[in-house]
Write a structure and sequence with these properties.
Low-confidence stretches: 1-5, 9-15
Strand content: 5-15%
Mean pLDDT: 92
Strand order of the largest sheet: 2-1-6-7
Structural class: alpha/beta
Helix content: 40-55%
Order of helices and strands: EHEHHHHHHEEEHEHEHHHHHH
Oligomer: single chain
Largest sheet: 4 strands, parallel
Radius of gyration: 21 Å
Amino acid sequence: MTTLAMERPQEHTDAATRRRVLLAPITVTPSKPLTPSHLKGLLWTDVMYRATRPLADVTYRYSHTTYHPTEQTLGFWEFLDRTRGDSDYGGRTEEEIGELYVEFRSAPRAPAEALRPYADAAASGWVHPASARVLELWSGHYARLGLHDPGLLTHQPPGFGLEESLSRLTDLGMCLDQREVGGPVYLDLTRHGLPLRQLVTADGRPNYLACALRELLFLAPGFDEVVLLYDTELDPDYQQLERVLTALGPAVRRVAVGRVPIDGRIRSARHGGWHDHHAGALLSAAHAGHDAAAVRLGMRLYFIAALGPGQQQSFRADLLHHCLNRAERILAAADHDAQPPLTERLARHRKDHQYVDPYRLTASLLGKRRAAPAHDLLSTVYL
């Protein structure tokens, strides 16, 4: 089981071999605090990863390096250096850096040539001090939440360069490259009834879908199942990504996780407004009244089971508090006696896929008449 290695897995030759599953969640740009929507996606992925590992060989691929070439990251770095100069970000908070990101998103974008030095530096492993500071703070949140760290502070370049990935798409008959006439590059799935989707602008800027393809075109052929976890608003792009990866051989599963409204409104973190709802504030409040185990379990009960996969329910501090209290009772009543094997209990929460459904599994912990959860389940998946 790996999270960092970029060697393409070998194809199977033995039918009895454990199935290989690739979890590929969308990444969060390291430029702002982690919002409730971010926490929901991260906790959802973490439970899926930890619950599926006893049943399959799972690779959790989450590389910030892969997505640094996007304009929203490189543009932010260029904006900071141009407007703030050689500032020291070592003591800045996520909120302070996030406010700078909000300012950047409302400013005119820089020309492509201004971003190229940053792209070259990022390809060699450099990270702007502001984003490095955010990733450092996030590492602390991961530790307090008990999240598996897939390499937040590690340089993890994708297996294909941009040209290699575009060449692979061309081989598959899925690329419309107009650069020779001064145009952009498109993902062309029109024969499958899907619209053209731009990957690279005419001035050479790749978007996040182009970056995802650099990584997944390389990795996907070595897996039996690829699980894509993403924001519901990105569903059209992930339908296209599913079509591309399916052509490479694996079964591809799309798992859309809805955002968390605040006071009835869904807003992008690029607009700010996180106030006391970001990860740092929520964790500080939770730890003020509960121990580490209750916080880890309670956060998962709330963001997975209570909120569910959709985005109908607004964030509620009172319901989060209720889930933290419920977690304490579950932990106190945990069953240490022998039960059916953990693998058997986990496998009940799969359908026609290899991965364990985080919502079905976590919701199974709730209910007044349900038996107390087994301690091995809690320790393996939630703590």
